[in-house]
Amino acid sequence: MIIRAKTKDLFEGKSISEKQRQNSKFNLFELESGKTELRSYPRRIVLELTNACNLSCVMCGRNAVDFSLTRFSMENFYALEPLFDIVEEVTLMGWGEPTVHPNFEEMLKILDNHSVRKYFCTNGMRLNKIKDAIFNYNVDVFAVSVDGATTKTNSQIRRGSDILKINSYLKEIVLKKNRKSLKYPYINYVFCAMKQNLDELPDLVNMAADVGLDEVKVVFLTAFDQSLASQTLYGEEEKVREVFKKTEERAQKYEILLKLPYITSSDPAGNALHRDCFVAYRDFYLGSDGYVRPCMSTSQKFFKFDKYRKFFDMWNSEEFKKHRKSVNTPNMPNSCKNCYQSSHCNWNNKKSYIQIKEDFAPDWKR
């Protein structure tokens, strides 16, 4: 099956409570009604655990900015705990590698005391250290970033990554999942497509099938640095279409779910600066520096999280209300005009592929 990235809905894993279902239903109603002050809670809380990483990927925006290392506060995590039986999902991801946070497993344990679904995205190099926690604390879904179907290509792009080790860890996890007759964790590869690795995408589907994964998700490279501008796939529609067709055939053969971005000139967003964005209705995003932001793909900060402030005072702050009102209008924030968030950007726009000299990343100074 071929699908596109979700813009309103979330991953449907284990059953959630009636309280969660009712909140999600109400949230969708308010979203579709265009409310700016919400009576519903978000459906997802996204926590950037750190901006530190154990890899040095060539395309990562961290390489194009100067920043101070930050780490998510456990006090803020505890302050959000009352919401873990109301929202659908808590996602642990951001600019850094979440599994290097010293309290990563503790967070999973706390989340498992609640009915919320648990998701994280990782580069996979520490899966051997957290594989027991994945089952002990019933992780619903996680994604592993790989950028090649060969050791050479993947390690050239994801410097410090070892695809053979990652796949060996994944096979252990899948084997344990099958032995226990579990449906979850649902596991997928995330692949950042660029000229250097595009031809390996069909073989990545073969690799996913061999490992026993459920899905391959593809995003296009966004270049934040002049050195990578020539690697973007803007203007390469014919080549992309050819490779995507081969990849779709492999996915159908091996029954792997394939999530693809729209090819340039075929994005239904047309001439818009981005597809309609609902993140500020659906998600509450808190960065590792303690600042609330609209999403991870922006430099815009709303305010510093205050554990003593009532959640709805933050959720319906003037910053949130103004953003909900403007994000899908010509008066949207400047950072939204240059949207490169893979689920909401318009892949017809060159700006989605190239962000050189743009204000694309948060200021992480404490």
Residue stretches low in confidence (pLDDT < 50, at least 5 long) are: none
Question: Residue share in helices?
Answer: 25-40%
How many beta-strand runs?
A: 13
What is the average of the pLDDT values? Answer: 93
Give the class from helix and strand content and strand pairing.
alpha/beta
- The largest beta-sheet arranges its strands as 1-10-9-8-6-5-4-2-11-12-13
Largest sheet: number of strands, sense, barrel closure: 11 strands, mixed
- Which outline best applies? globular
Order of helices and strands: EHEEHEHEHEHEHEHEHEHEEEHHH
Q: Which strand-content bin applies to the residues?
A: 5-15%
Radius of gyration: 20 Å
Cα(first) to Cα(last) distance is 44 Å
Put simply, the count of helices is 12
Tell me what you see in this structure.
- With 366 residues, the protein is of the alpha/beta class.
- The protein is built from twelve helices and 13 strands.
- The strands form two sheets. The chain has an eleven-stranded mixed β-sheet with strand order 1-10-9-8-6-5-4-2-11-12-13. A two-stranded antiparallel ribbon has the order 3-7.
- The chain is globular, with a radius of gyration of 20 Å.
- The N and C termini lie far apart (44 Å).
- The model has no long low-confidence stretch (mean pLDDT 93).
